[in-house]
Predict the structure.
Amino acid sequence: MYNFKAFLQELSSNSGIPFILIWEDGRSIFQSGQKPKEIDVLETSVTFGKQRAKLVIDSKYAVCTSLIKYYIENKYKELFSMREQILIDIIEGKSVSSDKVDKNFPFISNGCNLILISVDGSRYEALNIVKQIYNEQDILSMLYDDNIVLIGSFDEADEHAESIREAIISNLYCRCYVSFSKRTVNASEIREAYNNAKESLYIGRKLGIKSEIYDYDNMIFEKAIYNISPEVKEEFLKQFKHKFDAFDSEMINTIEEFMNSGLNISDAAKKLYIHRNTLIYRLDKIVKDTGYDIRDFKQANIFIIAFLIWKESR
C-alpha cells in the first residue's frame, strides 16, 4: 500500500509498541510482533477515507492507543490524499512538478495505464472492491467526476478491465462499464489518457456496446458513428427504427454476438450456445425482415451503422 506498511513498521519499531491493523472484513493490513492473547487485547476503530479498520493492541499500551491511532490516520491521509490531489491536478491540466510526480507515481516512467470505471450501483462499494483487488500493489484508485479512476502499471489492461468488471458485477449485482486508454510513459500524457478513456466510456454506454469494456484505440468505428450528423442519423432511423423495434431480445442478442464475432457464424453460434443451423435460420430471418444480409460485408456495414444509431436513440 505505497510505503504505508513501511511507515507502520517504523512506527512500531520506534515506539516499541507492537500492534495489528486489520480491515473490518478480517483482512490483514499489518502485524508487528506476536499476536496478543485475546484477554489482553484492546481494539479501536481507525478511519481510512471511506473505509474503516481495527487497531488491535496489547491492553498494557492502552495509554498510547490514541496517539498510535492519530499517527496512523494522519499518515494515511498524508500519503493517499496527496497522491489523489496530484492526480486530479494532472487530469485538470494544472502544473505539477516532476519531482512530485516521480515521488508519488514512480511507475509512470516505466509505462502505466489509466482505467475508468462506471457503475449503476454504489460507487463507494465498487471502489472498495477495486482497493481490495489491488491492496498489495502500487496502484492508485479514487473517485473523480462520478467515476472510479485507477492508475498503475498493468501488463494487459484489457484483462485487468475484465477482471475488475467481473468482480464488481459478482459482488454488487449491478451494471459495470470499464474503459481504458493506451499505455503512457510520462505525466503529460495522463490527462490525454483520462480524456480518451472518458470519451470511450461515454460513447460505449451511449451506443450500448454489449461488452461494456471499451478500449479507446479500438473504437474508431464507434466514434465515427457517434459523430455522424443528426440529419443522417434521422434518415437511418426512418428506414430501420420500426424494423429493429420489432425484434425481440433474442434477436437483438443474436445481432450483437454476430457483430462481436466479426461476422463469423461458427464463433457466434458458440457464444450464443446454439447450433450453427439455428444461427443461419435467424440470419435468414433478419434478411427477410430488414432486406439486409449481414453475412455480406457491404450490407453488414450499413446494417451495423443503423443498428448502433438505433441503440443510441433508445
